[in-house]
Structure formats: structure tokens, C-alpha cells
Hints:
alpha/beta; 13% strand
Amino acid sequence: MPAELVVVRHGQSTGNAALAAADAAGSQDAGITERNPDIPLSPLGREQAGDLGRWFASLPPERIPQIIKSSPYVRARDTADIVRDELARAGRAVPPPVLDERLRDRETGVLNGLPSAARQARFPDEVRRRAHLGELYYRPPGGESLTDVALRLRSFLRDVCREQAGRRVLVAAHDAVVIMLRFVLEGLTETELVALSGSVANASVTRWVADAGRLRLAEYNRTGHLQPGHLQPGHLQPGHLQPGRLRSGQPLGGDLLGCHPASGHPGAGIG
């Protein structure tokens, strides 16, 4: 298994900003014209990625990533590249990111890029079906359920554990990937998963470390490396562990199942 698995959400994207503005205004049009894979970082997102890279560069040698894996989506790739550039600027060279399609964002099909008002107006039956099935199992037309995301992440984890034994691995991806890695590795229940929904900040850090043959959650949703002006409303978490809700009776930082993810349950916007 890897010595350390660090997963970061990309910096704010233009899609994140557009959807937030549309929802705040009650608009049905976010004005997003790109394909989901092509949505870039916003200017703020690039600043956040720079903060992230400088924080990594400030870590002791035993914490510097040795390999970077990234979602192929532009916003994640650019975050990974900016982090790598900051590491290189500090004299800590890391090989170019390796793209892996299993780390892509959740595909939300016909609902992709739609503000809340548009979903309600154009797809009221889907809104009701989503509420009935729950976020874990709901699959929008042409899209994925979160359990679908979990399946591809189980495959990714098997490969990382086999190929990157003893190494420090950095992953640049999306909020759904961060949450579903917790789901897979920790065996979270559906209720615990829902409690985490929406909690993953742009450019935040979630980290697992090898401990006595297992992976242990060390940090969740760390944002303390971001400059004060780069924090977004609702994402003002301090730079230490944010536990969310773990399984009843399970201590924070308890043993995880490393390369043998917990069985748990089988695993709409722009994350």
C-alpha cells in the first residue's frame, strides 16, 4: 500500500463560480458552454492551486509527494500542474501527473451544469426520483450514481496499492471522488455519506497514512493552507482534521482497510 495517499479537490472552477451565482440569483441559466471535462479553473481557483502547491513545497522531505495522479478533467489537471510547478520552484521536482479516467468527476447526465431552478423547472420528475432514492443510489439519465463512482474508485485503489507500495501518492480530483474514497475506505453508511455531502472545499486536502499495515485517516478537508482572501463562504474550516460523521462508535483516525477497502455499500453538478 502507499505510505501516504493525499487527495485534493481542484481549485474553484469557472463552472463552480457560475453555478453558485445562478443559484444565488434563482436563475435557470448558469451560462456554462464548455463540456464538463473542459471547464477550467477560475482566477480564484488558480490562486487556490498556487496556495496548495506552496504548502506542499513547505513540507518536510518525508511528506513531499513522489507521484501525482490526476483526473483528466482540465480543472483537476491544471491544479495538479500548478502544484507541481510550485514544488519545482522550491527545488522539489516531481514527475508529471499521470492521468487516470477513474478519477473523473461524477457524471450527472441531463442534469449536468443546471442550476437548482432549472432542475426543478425542466426535470421535476427527476427531482422527485432523486429525493425518493437518495443521493447514494440515484442515477440521473445519462449519468452515474455515487455507487458507480465507488466501483471505479475500488479499481483505482487496487492498482495504487499494488503499484505504489511505500510511496507518497498525491491525487488531484473532485469532491465526489474525495467523498467516495472515504465511503470505500471507511465503509461509511448511507447516512454518514449524506452527512459529508457538500463538505469538500475547493483546493482542500484529505490525507490517509499507512499505519501498522492499514490506511488511517489523518486529515479531512484541510483548508488552512489557503490565504484568507482565497477561502470561499461556507468553507472556512481550520487547517486540521474535520471529522464529519464517522460510523457510530468508530474513533476518528481508526484503522482503515488499506488495500482491502471496507465492504460497506457498493459504491449534479460540477465538482
